[in-house]
Design a protein that fits this description.
Blueprint lengths: L1 E7 L20 H15 L8 E8 L7 H14 L7 E6 L6 H7 L6 E7 L3 H7 L5 H13 L5 E7 L6 H9 L6 E6 L7 H7 L8 H17 L3 E4 L2 E3 L6 H7 L4 E4 L4 E3 L3 E5 L3 H10 L3 H5 L6 E5 L2 H12 L6 E2 H7 L2 H11 L7 E4 L2 E4 L1 H4 L2 H6 L11
Parallel strand pairs: 1-2, 1-9, 2-3, 3-4, 4-5, 5-6
Antiparallel strand pairs: 6-8, 7-8, 10-11, 11-12, 13-15, 14-15
Helix pairs in contact: 1-2, 1-10, 6-8, 13-14
């Protein structure tokens, strides 16, 4: 079983903090969809199995697709892959896209899960972030989703950005009460983003580390009060509502990424497509066979063959972020017992506040979870198989 990611790069407006590949060239949408369909055909054998656990329309703003366009793409997916009845089919959506009419139209598609990028329920904060929806649209998007049967619903919120107070953060969290899945990310300030430039000009100021930690602790406390499981550093859900698709990433499972800027992983190598829509469309129009596509390496995609050490390090990085933890027995079986033995010795000297060792599985504490990536780096191996 595998996971399929479909990148829809179009946006009405680029958010102030965004560093994902996106474009406002919406007039290219129809040509892009045809190119997307062609790449699905050319790369359908990339995964070890033709059966998919999940299909994820990400972006960009996938909710700029009409229901007919979603069906057009999904029909192509179904032609080349097997989609079992229980498969998770997610559409990322912006609140301003989720009008009552649009959500109703989605019921004629295979979409069975919505992931709504709300970020905040405050108009002032939305302006800072460069979001184009309003607080009213944020509330209505949830209302319409539930009204038309999308009970498998996820909401994205952001914290640790300029002007966010604990009072507003508490309100943002409480507005999601009853939503089964919550993704909450601290602002990552990208140097090339508009918000980064505004901060450099002292228009805005980032919160302190203490303020960020207070917001994160409030998030954890709120999720616990709602009986949500903290199953990944930034993700919380009611029992049984894990993101099947994202869990595949975190559990080192193969996935295929289709579209501009999309990434793929087959267990041994990683590759990613170029972030140039016109060039992507041109190459897809002129490519007829899978062999021709493979010949386009370094033109339309780049590929990295992963060493055993790199694969171990990536497993450590992703697994430590989850409630399932870093399984030393899995490392010993999949890679080498030597890696597991070194990790066991190393973690014996880490501060107890950072991790908990349960049998042969490493878990981060709540305190350690906020610094998951930094802690993981302390456990990385060099190319000779030795801890750095």
């Amino acid at each position: 079983m595998g996971a399929l990611y479909l990148h829809i790069p179009f946006c009405q407006q680029r958010c102030n903090y965004c560093n994902f590949f996106s474009s406002t060239l919406i007039e290219l949408k129809q040509q892009y969809i045809k190119a997307l369909q062609k790449e699905i055909e050319l790369r359908c054998r990339y995964l070890p199995s033709a059966s998919l656990n999940s299909v994820y329309f990400g972006g960009g703003t996938p909710s700029l697709l009409t229901s007919d366009e979603i069906n057009q793409i999904f029909d192509t997916v179904c032609h080349f892959f097997t989609i079992p009845p229980h498969a998770e089919i997610t559409l990322e959506a912006n609140p301003n896209s989720l009008t009552q009419e649009y959500v109703k139209s989605l019921t004629s598609t295979a979409i069975n899960r919505l992931s709504i990028g709300i970020q905040s329920f405050s108009n002032a904060d939305l302006q800072v972030l460069g979001r184009i929806h309003s607080d009213k649209q944020a509330h209505l998007s949830i209302q319409y989703a539930l009204q038309y049967g999308y009970s498998n619903l996820s909401v994205d919120l952001m914290y640790a950005y300029p002007l966010l107070t604990l009072e507003q953060w508490k309100k943002n969290l409480e507005y999601t009460k009853g939503i089964p899945h919550l993704s909450c990310y601290a602002l990552t300030l990208e140097p090339s983003s508009a918000l980064s430039r505004q901060i450099q000009k002292n228009i805005y100021t980032l919160p302190s580390e203490d303020e960020t930690m207070a917001q994160y602790q409030m998030l954890i406390d709120y999720a616990r009060s709602q009986n949500m499981e903290h199953y990944e550093t930034s993700n919380f859900c009611l029992p049984g509502h894990y993101s099947v698709h994202n869990t595949a990433y975190w559990q080192n499972q193969p996935y295929l990424g289709i579209g501009c800027g999309a990434h793929s992983f087959n267990g041994h190598s990683r590759q990613w497509n170029i972030g140039n829509i016109p060039l992507y469309i041109q190459h897809m129009q002129n490519t007829r066979t899978p062999e021709q596509f493979l010949s386009l390496e370094n033109l339309i995609f780049e590929k990295e063959n992963l060493s055993v050490t790199t694969r171990v390090n990536e497993y450590i990085m992703t697994s430590l972020r989850t409630m399932w933890g870093c399984d030393l027995d899995y490392i010993a079986q999949q890679f080498s017992p030597l890696y597991a033995e070194q990790l066991l010795k190393k973690t014996a000297h880490l501060p107890a506040s950072q991790y908990i060792l349960q049998s042969s599985v490493l878990h981060l504490t709540e305190q350690g979870a906020l610094f998951a990536d930094a802690i993981a780096c302390e456990l990385f191996f060099d190319e000779n198989g030795n801890l750095k």
